[in-house]
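hey so i finally got around to running both of the ones u sent me last week. sorry it took forever, my laptop kept dying halfway thru and i had to restart like 3 times lol. anyway pasting them below in the order u listed, first the sequence line then the structure token line for each. didnt double check formatting much so if smth looks off just lmk and ill redo it

first one:
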Amino acid sequence: MVNSDTSLFSHIIVGAGSAGCVMAARLSEDPRRRVLLLEAGGRDDSVLIRAPLLMGEAIQSSRFNWHYETVPQPALAGRRLYWPRGKTLGGSSAINAMHYVRGAPANYDEWRDAFGCEGWGWDDVLPAFMAVEHRVKGADVLHGTGGPLWVQDIDGLNPLTEAFFTAGALFQYPRNHDFNGPTQVGFGPYQVTQRGLRRCSAGDAFLRPALARPNLTVLTGALATRVLLQGRPGGKRRAVGVEVLCDGALQTFAATGEVLLCGGAINSPQLLQLSGIGDSTWLRDAGISPELDLAGVGRNLQDHLDVIGQIRTRSSLSIGLSLRALPALAKGVADALRGRAGLFSTNPVQGGAFIRSSRAGDLPDLQLVFTPALAAPHGRERPVGHGATLHVCQLYPRSRGTIRIACADPTVPPLIDPNYGGDPWDLEVLTDGLDLVRDLLASSPFDFDRVCEVLPGPQVRTRSDLLDDVRARAETLYHPVGTCAMGRGELAVVDSRLRVRGVERLRVVDASVMPRLIGGNTNAPTIMIATRAADFMRDDA
């Protein structure tokens, strides 16, 4: 990392996740700018991050994961849900399943038309998606090559993944080889952000090539505690720097230009609130003196709720822990040591689908994720044996939650309340999905290897049983957005150029600005948002 001998910078970026890495790379292209990138986590130099098969180990490592939890969720049997978020250079792109999904084009037109996000329709955002992409298969009208973010197909699909695709065809769903193509609908393999045998996180794609620039300073282990503001409370304010906790001591870094918050849907609203920007009642309750009453900060939280079905299989075709699997594991280790493709370079989360529930409108409202393994949620357990796991998530929840600081201490995690099932519609849609998951795993393409159903299990028989099972087992699919929403209206936090309302020289650039959750994984859209933010700053300059 490059270290600076002064505390004065032209731009300060808080958070080295997907958006922060893009911003650091783009802004430091101009040698006249002195850019500071702050990351509360550490470095990302670990085989747990590099090897696709070990994503479950990375997500469980306290070195790379904040290990957040929600407040109790009344509609989910009062459970506190585990919320992994990246705590390293590259952020959650360093521990995710690497799926490259843009969402439906209609999602972005909705941002523009329904939420007042001028310039964010599909025709506006597609060039940014394409500009940063290096599609290994080659370019076409929807895909780019030559960009820093590698996107490739998963090599060597497991026979059980192929059985999943056959099951989809049996249920009259089309095969779809490109979920980022003309349509999302159908069954097919995911595209992944890998560069050959290794993960291609935002840190790899964007930040690492920029580290040699003398005008870029990257500080890890640096927890931002507040944005420093000039001006009178209640009046026009200006961001002039950031206060940071490093090695137990507070330091102040000043910015002559803009401060950019790239902490994601949890940490960006948290930092705004710690800085006195947010709902004034919430702030006073937490012991913070309000600087700017902005009610939308921390509201509008949305996430994809997910539940799994599972079968046990008789052979060792699946990825699993067993005596029969030891030869394959030994070969995988040998391949990895020799730098060859093999088990450890294989993404285990292989197959997907976008389909409609009985309650869907024009767009598919369910996403399926297939893993040829007995996988436990979040990798928190390591089941022994062989099998297959099929996730389903509801893409367009109606429920809205909040991120709210509990106190003025920046080291205390905020209160995370996704309000899952606050609108009962969401759980009904997800129950439709679990019913379909069960049917798919029980279908004839899996007969050759299936021993029994593990989840939901034989005790779950009726629709009411399935709904209760969803309440008992549903978990996050790691896609929180919306807590610093872009657009117009009383809950809008940033304008269409991502500038915080009422504060000069302060922008939020991450998934928190999405006014509504898109239909798919959120890493690629977050990178797109940062790419456009860098363009806005270039144009404004």
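and the second one:
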Amino acid sequence: MANYTRIGTAALRQIPFDFKGNVTRVLAAIERAVAAHINILLMPELALTGYGCEDNFSYQEFNEAAESALQDVLDGLHRLHHKCKSGQDLLVAMGMPVMFPGGQVYNTTAFVSAKGLHGFACKQYLARNGVHYEPRWFEAWPRGKVVNHPRFNVPFGDIVIDARGVRVGIETCEDAWVANRPGRDLYHRNVDVLLNPSASHFSVGKNHIREQFIKEGSRAFGVVYAYANLAGTENGTSIFDGGSMIASEGQVVSRGDRFNVRDVVMNQTLVNLSANRVSRINSSETIHIDDNHVVTAPLSLTLSSDAVLAARKHDRTEAANDELPAFWSRLSDEDHNYTEICYALGNGLWDWTTRTHTHGYVVSLSGGADSALVAASVYVSHFVALEQLGVSDYLAALPQGLRAKIAPLSQGEDKITWLKHKAMPQILVCLYQGTDNSSDTTFNAAKYLAEEIGATFHSWNIEPVVQQYHQLVNGLYPDKPLSWDTDDIALQNIQARSRSPGVWMLANRENKLLIATSNLSESALGYATMDGDTSGVISVIAGINKTTIRKINSWLEEKGLPLTMDGKSARHQLQQMHRVNVQQPTAELRPEEQTDEADLMPYVVCDFIMNCYLARQMWPKSILVELMLNGFDREHDLRQLAGFVERWFTLFCRNPWKRYGTRAGFHIEQVSLDPKTFHRFPLLNNGFKEQLQCMWNYVDEIESD
């Protein structure tokens, strides 16, 4: 008879330094695994501590606390085993840091069961690109080496667990992203199940790449491949989207929900180990069996024929509440990307809501694209959380002070109506701050969008404040008063900065968090006023370029956010976004008509240049060539394109101090300009003068041919 096993994954919403809470969530997942008759349970990378503990990973007391938490998990497993009468065996793979007596710290996966700790498998390739700084905290483990850990007295290193003939190996996150992935060696060690505990942060389109290496790992190595990811916004900027997957025979056979706000999201399926073994038997590559460093565990991880039939019946009759909602599989590429972004923003804001113990948010809503998406994201955050949790659990998750302000759901009242009219007015306050240069267009856009999402809307005119600053400065220069001819930047910036103190005061009085509204494109060029639109606690859209922001806003108006409402797929549109979308981006800081693109360059060109520089690591001449190869020369001549490149690099090099001074933001796109976590750039530099001259020499050569 074929050998079957039941594999489960748990996406956990862990919190750095919350050892008791993290253990509670780990044990909750284990308890659910026991109830579902799961044989192998995979938890994420560093599940016991959370991924975002940063420099504390090297602290001895931190690692002692992690070891204590491990013992709490082992004690909990023991209690659950005695409570459960089925006698089933459960092998749990759980990520955690482990320190050696010499002070070296390793990123490991602990194999545990009710029978104790069986050993640790160590991560071999440490992520060091983008937002990752793992080599700062961890040591990479050499392939093929196993030692005995002196304190735990169990095998430690490149181990494989053999549970009565079922072999289980580990590829930890980055291990699977490299060409020489450990799965190659594990193939020769006859591994049946390959587990990938991950802490893989979200960026647009990344989940598709994950799925590729999961399916290919299953196919090429002839294994059942399980992947488990963290969930939530641990450190406040990186968003983990969950999305656990299990693949067998080269195909994904089960998926867990993504961007779910529950603490524990399970994913489980019955898999045929024998079918995967057949693919190894039929492989053209000869397996050179390597039994070194195989750790025997006295566990039975296969199911009897009766258990297999019972499991199939369970799968047919039980509602798969943690499965991925059906709408994800039906989205076009564009739909998928915009849906991911909106869910990611909402997911991040949910954690900021529930973990800061404040009473919601304040947004300086200008009626433009940026602040509109920020305000919409707060609404999406609570809309989706309400759908996922239900009213009771949704309210229970909110900080007590905020919860106390929200009137209860009336009998027969629709929960979405309740959210808009009772919850959102307490959660989000939007403030429009006009000057003499503001228009009715932006005022109405702000007002009607705030009404549509249920936010409390206020407006005031800050022109008297601006004029007071004019008078103060003119008093210092009586012979040279301020004028637009000589003081353009100063007169623009004082308007933006004058908006900051009042909205901060409103946020403080309401015990709410002020959200900054600057975007990725503006950050690149310094086209944001320090202490103006950069004011806030968190910069929600700092990781999204302007081109994408405008497209998302149009998409929210025309198509709407896909979601599952009461078990049915639906779309939720924000129709008042049309008042925002019909406008050209403008700061409204000059007395005459003003647009961002006239001040800078077309945003689509700006964002293309930025992507070439950050993602593809190109310099001016190469970027100019790439612009022409991608058809930008159809609308702009060669010298105009070169001028755009020069302007981009000139502004980029002139304003790195602004990027150091802006608020931390969510990591959303593949690239980021956060100098603390992604792109480090010298504050003082020569502005790429030599490289820009090289580009202009190239232009002269082309024109002379």
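quick thing i noticed on the 2nd:
The chain has three domains: 4-323, 325-463+502-585, 599-705.
anyway thats it, ttyl
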